[in-house]
Amino acid sequence: MEFERARSNEQKELRLKQIKDATMHLYNTVVYQDISMASIAKELDFTRGNLYKYYATKEEILLDVLSDRINLWHHNLDAEMTNIPINDTKQFCEIWANVTNDSKDFLKLFSILFSIIERNVSVEKLTEFKKEILASNMEAANLIKEKFPDLSDEHIINFLSLQISTIVGLYPLSNPSKLQQKAIKNSGYPYTPPCFLTTFTEFLETLLNSYR
User: Fold this and answer.
1) Is residue 168 a contact partner of residue 110, using CB atoms and an 8 Å limit?
2) Which DSSP string do the residues of the chain spell out, in sequence order?
3) I need a labelling partner for 134 at 20 to 30 A (CA). Which of 70, 141, 188, 202 fits?
4) Given a cut of 50, is residue 3 above it in pLDDT?
5) Closest CA to 23 of 3, 39, 1, 2
6) Mean pLDDT across the chain, nearest whole number?
7) What pTM was estimated for this model as a whole?
């Protein structure tokens, strides 16, 4: 696309969306190490100089993408939880796990958030993101409290924290790369990747039942 500098908020939002879409296209088609600001600019037919007017690193772009995906995840979660009964642990956990499992970009990015993305952005950008995460957690906490009125605030906070920790560890284990799959096969190592949806659902149910 031919680059034209954005001159209005609408044009800027469109430009940011184009950058995020191009970056995620690369993220889903090439290995992470091969993604650079230069390759993103090439994907967009921008110069690197033009791209740097919007973002300083590829991780800053991915942080914005993850922020968008978290908001979408919350929206979908709220919509799916509307009609479930109070204190229905099984249905609640199944919906939570299914909505999460359907959010593939959310899962992929969260699995590298703490180890890669957050380590390669400015403190200002990361602070802004952390504030958004705090607001999102409050929304999720309110949803949990609505469905489980007797659950303590401490248990709700623990539930949110532990489900994220589980995603970060479980998703990569459930989705080994082609290189990892080949190495497992060649080594004769008796490893079968767990099913993310099944394992995550079982974890959520066990955790929530332990609090109740």
Assistant:
1) yes
2) -------SHHHHHHHHHHHHHHHHHHHTTS-GGG--HHHHHHHHT--HHHHTTT-SSHHHHHHHHHHHHHHHHHHHHHHHHTTPPTT-HHHHHHHHHHHHHH-HHHHHHHTTTTTTGGGGS-HHHHHHHHHHHHHHHHHHHHHHHHH-TTS-HHHHHHHHHHHHHHHHHHHHHHS--HHHHHHHHHHT----PPPHHHHHHHHHHHHHHHH-
3) 202
4) no
5) 39
6) 93
7) 0.89
Instruction: Evaluate whether 91 touches 105 at the Cβ level (below 8 Å).
Output: no
Mean pLDDT for the stretch of residues 26-51: 93
Residue with tokens 């979908």: 76
Tokens of 205: 């149910």
Q: In the chain, what are the domain boundaries?
A: 1-55, 59-211
Placement of tokens 């609408």 in the chain: 10
Q: The tokens 């490893």 sit on which residue?
A: 191
Q: 59-211 belongs to which CATH class? A: mainly alpha
As a CATH number, domain 1-55 is: 1.10.10
Tracing tokens 């949990």 back to the chain, one arrives at 144
Do domains 1-55 and 59-211 share one topology? The answer is no
